[in-house]
Design goal:
Blueprint lengths: L3 H51 L29 H8 L1 E7 L33 E2 L6 H9 L3 E5 L5 H13 L4 E5 L8 E7 L7 E7 L4 H14 L9
Parallel strand pairs: 2-4, 3-4
Antiparallel strand pairs: 1-6, 3-5, 5-6
Helix pairs in contact: 2-5
Length: 240
């Protein structure tokens, strides 16, 4: 069995491969775009007219919106970005783990589950997980817990976080969005920013993982990178 160091190196190589593929795809799209630019402009105009006529969306669901300023720079990965314990300590964040009590589905879609950790890291959940992506409004926590079971990492933040900091979180998300969720928090969590994951070990229920940061600073960015690489795709039921 490979060591955690080897697993982290493999994850790093996978991330670099995804970034290279995304850059290549962007270049192909740019080339194709020269030939169909007029048609796309017409389609965009139609979409704008339809949205304005309908009053726009409700701000929910993957995709992000006005909650996340664009183009806000973040520090490059530092030497601690591969060591979650050291990165969390440097950022002033705390790490917690909690043995999962259940992997059962909730039959009642109107049910509300009381989770031991806040934000939640494991436990009973709805049958349909929240999709990967960036959210303007938090999905039901019972949907998000199912997303954790599938090996995703969720980054949560207080809605009153300053706009520049929300922009930094979006830039971090865009840096490597694979199997990642970014959402404002509606659980009244005691942190400015937090990250959660659900590990498979020990069988059969696994362990919930939480990193909570009382305040936001640039070192939190590296801590989130390290947490993501440490826990992504280690859930009890990993789904591609």
């Amino acid at each position: 069995m490979s060591s955690r160091k080897e697993q982290k190196e493999a994850l790093r190589r996978e991330r670099e491969a995804r970034e290279q593929a995304a850059q290549a795809a962007a270049r192909r799209k740019q080339i194709v775009g020269y030939g169909v630019g007029g048609a796309l402009a017409l389609v965009a105009l139609v979409i704008v007219v339809v949205v304005l006529a309908g009053g726009g969306g409700d701000g929910g669901g993957p995709g992000g919106g006005d909650l996340y300023p664009s183009g806000v720079g973040i520090p490059d990965p530092g030497p601690l970005s591969a060591d979650v314990e050291a990165a969390a300590e440097a950022a002033g964040c705390v790490l917690q783990s909690n043995r999962a009590a259940s992997r059962d589905h909730l039959d009642d879609q109107n049910a509300t589950e009381n989770y031991e950790q806040n934000p939640p890291t494991s436990g009973r959940h709805f049958a349909v997980p929240a999709p990967d992506g960036i959210y303007d409004e938090q999905p039901d926590k019972e949907d998000l817990v199912h997303t954790l079971e599938h090996g995703r990492v969720i980054v949560w933040f207080k809605p009153n976080l300053p706009a520049d900091d929300r922009g930094k979180l979006k830039t971090l998300f865009d840096e490597d969005p694979f199997h990642l969720v970014l959402t404002p928090d509606e659980t009244n969590m005691p942190y400015a920013v937090a990250a959660t994951a659900w590990n498979a070990e020990p069988d059969p229920l696994g362990t919930g993982q939480l990193m909570g940061c009382k305040t936001f600073n640039d070192k939190v960015i590296d801590a989130l990178r390290a947490f993501k690489d440490e826990h992504r795709d280690r859930g009890p039921e990993v789904v591609n």
